[in-house]
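Email to the structure team, subject: Synaptophysin-like protein 1 model.

Hi all, the expression group asked for a predicted structure before they design truncation constructs. Nothing fancy, just the tokens so they can compare against earlier work. One-line instruction: predict Synaptophysin-like protein 1, return tokens.
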Amino acid sequence: MMTGFRLNLSPLKEPLGFVKLVEWLTAIFAFGSCGGYSGRNIISLFCGDGRNETLQANFHYPFRLSQVLLIKENTTICNHSVTTTHLVGDSASSAEFFVGVAIICFLYSMVALLVYLGYMHVYKDSDFGPIFDFTLTAILVFLWLVCSSAWAKGLQNVKDAVDTDGIRSTLGICKGTNVTCDVTEFANMRSLNISVVFGYLNMFVWAGNAWFVYKETRWHSQKFSSPTGPGRQQVPAPI
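Reply from the structure team: attached below.
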């Protein structure tokens, strides 16, 4: 069996190779729109005497909000002494899980494309290649579902923590005083919303690709063939 590299671009014209290329691109958009994010909310505090003060809530991937400092120790705001205050919440696990799955899929798509374009003769000559490809693809479909759902919930937690209601519940000065707290400038979270969309899109793309990979396995070929023997005629597989 020849195992040398043989460049053949024809798999890109077939669903097996073309969908893998799409998976590679969608994985880039998934981790790129989430992993490099940073945002800032401006919080305005309206003091009872007519003065206004502002705070900044700067947050970024992986969204360990409990480490984001809002107010330093013993700061005076609106004539009130305020202790050290941080944002509330931690969405790091869901964000890192999402980005991790996206990076794994990005790398696996590159390796699979290399095999399809240069070693397809080896891939089809053995049962191991297609079966391994199908099994891993099915696992990644499940991981996309789990990580996208987890990150969607984590993103909602981030939004809740940095909106006006979340800030008011975090800052003690906003409760039981004549100080009114409002978020007057919101960070643009469009890319984070897009990352969730790409997460679920990846799940559907990988699920569709699982079918084309399955057709390369012996399980599919055995399903459409009948045993031959004395008195039996082989039935050709349907096209």
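The chain has one domain: 10-218. Residues 128-162 form the longest helix (35 residues). Ping us if the truncation boundaries need rechecking.
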